[in-house]
């Protein structure tokens, strides 16, 4: 009888503990931990709310606000940032890996479906205009153009192939491999390589300067270029996949292709090479200075404007600790470009597929 009473009492105590996990946890948290948890809960609720609002507007065919992706983007940034602050305060909250390749300290794998929904909504908001001039071979076009431009800049076959692979990585970095897209966060940057009007014009001028060399090296590619140039005449050329990729590469990257032999020696990993060329998009002047310094990986940037550009492109952007950084070496910058890695991994696979044909 006594044993049964003790057993019943133990069950009652266990039941009471199971009924009060939230209260027990709350009592165990420090004020800083409670604040971090509350901030994450608010950010997650806001993210869900904005996702639902945009989905409703799209399905009801309601007009979207100007730059409809900006609020949604900032809400996603807030979720990642506050989760990093939460795991800084409570390392035990770091969970399992996620399919996006985001470090677990920055992202709770349980909310993967919300980020999938985020991507789906952006795909709708950034759909190409009705008159966009698509290509039947968008990925091969990028590789062919990057390779041909590198050859025109004097590179041998091996290094020119690296330029084609890097160019494909840039296509994935800019649009995740989607051609002729608009931009839900900008009224300036459009197309497969997300260029502004002045960048597009500058790239076209640079292309015209090497077109004779291209015609000699690759007559078939030059003939394709003539066809696409004629097709794009009288339109916003950024929505012709071929001309936008061509002019985007010529504007920002073609001159740097000459340095690929040295870059490959410094960064033998193709993913790291793609990261470097993406940095030419984001912080071109410091990146070029680092390359010419003779010690690229240890070259340090500390200009507040440069750090702001990095944060605006998802590098050192998440959490109070990262955002408080006032300087970084290029080794640290490359390591912080983890949101780009999944895109570059896709580019590597697609490049192998194209070459396999």
Low-confidence stretches: 1-26
Gyration radius, in Å: 25 Å
What form results from the Cα inertia axes? globular
* Main sheet overview: 2 strands, antiparallel
- How many helices? The count is 18
SS-based class? mainly alpha
Strand order of the largest sheet: 1-2
- Strand content is under 5%
Distance between the termini: 80 Å
The beta-strand count equals 2
> What is the average per-residue confidence, as pLDDT, rounded to a whole number?
93
Strand-and-helix sequence, N→C?
HHHHHHHHHHHHHHEHHEHH
Percent helix: 55-70%
SSE blueprint and pairings:
Layout: H1 2-19, H2 21-28, H3 31-59, H4 68-89, H5 112-125, H6 138-152, H7 157-175, H8 197-217, H9 219-232, H10 241-252, H11 254-257, H12 260-266, H13 270-282, H14 284-292, E1 300-301, H15 304-312, H16 320-323, E2 328-329, H17 330-335, H18 338-356
Antiparallel strand pairs: 1-2
């Amino acid at each position: 009888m006594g044993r049964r009473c003790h057993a019943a009492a133990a069950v009652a105590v266990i039941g009471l503990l199971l009924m009060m996990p939230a209260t027990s946890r709350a009592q165990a948290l420090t004020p800083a931990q409670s604040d971090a948890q509350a901030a994450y809960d608010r950010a997650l609720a806001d993210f869900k709310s904005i996702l639902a609002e945009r989905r409703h507007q799209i399905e009801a065919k309601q007009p979207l606000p100007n730059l409809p992706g900006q609020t949604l983007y900032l809400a996603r940034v807030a979720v990642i940032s506050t989760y990093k602050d939460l795991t800084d305060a409570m390392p035990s909250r770091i969970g399992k890996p996620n399919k996006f390749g985001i470090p677990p300290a920055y992202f709770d794998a349980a909310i993967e479906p919300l980020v999938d929904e985020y991507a789906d909504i952006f795909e709708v908001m950034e759909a190409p205009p009705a008159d966009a001039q698509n290509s039947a071979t968008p990925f091969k076009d990028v590789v062919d153009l990057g390779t041909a431009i590198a050859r025109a800049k004097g590179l041998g076959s091996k290094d020119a192939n690296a330029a084609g692979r890097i160019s494909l990585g840039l296509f994935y970095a800019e649009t995740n491999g989607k051609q002729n897209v608009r931009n839900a966060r900008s009224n300036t940057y459009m197309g497969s390589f997300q260029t502004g009007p002045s960048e597009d014009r500058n790239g076209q001028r640079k292309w015209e300067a090497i077109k004779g060399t291209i015609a000699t090296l690759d007559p078939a590619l030059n003939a394709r270029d003539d066809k696409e140039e004629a097709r794009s005449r009288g339109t916003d050329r950024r929505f012709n996949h071929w001309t936008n990729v061509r002019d985007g590469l010529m504007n920002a990257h073609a001159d740097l292709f000459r340095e690929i032999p040295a870059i490959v020696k410094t960064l033998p990993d193709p993913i790291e090479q793609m990261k470097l060329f993406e940095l030419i998009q984001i912080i071109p002047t410091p990146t070029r200075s680092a390359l010419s310094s003779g010690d690229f990986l240890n070259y340090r940037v500390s200009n507040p404007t440069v750090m702001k550009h990095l944060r605006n492109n998802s590098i050192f952007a998440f959490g109070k600790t990262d955002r408080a950084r006032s300087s970084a070496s290029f080794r640290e910058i490359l390591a912080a470009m983890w949101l780009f890695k999944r895109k570059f991994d896709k580019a590597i696979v697609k490049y192998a597929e194209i070459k396999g044909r």
